[in-house]
Amino acid sequence: MTKALLPETIRAPFARYSHGMEVPAGHRLVFTSGQLGIAADETIPEGVEAQARICFRNIGEILAAAGMEFSDLVRINAYVTGREHMAGYMKVRDEFTGAPPPASTLMIVSGFTREEFVVEVEVIAARAP
């Protein structure tokens, strides 16, 4: 069983995430590549929330292929192209993640491979065998 690390000796997280996650020895790990907001039919919706939902749905499919689910997430790295996308991304992230929330980093980047992308998400998941 993974364990959220939230030391009371440091400032509480800014949003819904854990400062760290402990993964006991023997757990299986899954690392995803960054997922972009592009659907299987090659469409790219406008807006960070629509794109983030595609990112997380794709991640859900990858996790399912490994016999895992969102409750197995221990780390999220996300990238958005502007501060105006942060709240929308976090809203969608919180819809997909359970308790305790995984460790998480959100960065603002100058762009992705195609101009219409505004968010990219990669995760690490862990589950006991």
Automatic annotation (TrEMBL):
Keywords: Hydrolase. InterPro entries: RutC-like_sf, YjgF/YER057c/UK114. Its EC number is 3.5.-.-. Pfam families: Ribonuc_L-PSP. GO terms for molecular function: hydrolase activity. The keyword Cytoplasm does not apply. The keyword Transferase does not apply. SUPFAM superfamilies: YjgF-like. Belongs to the RutC family. This is RidA family protein.
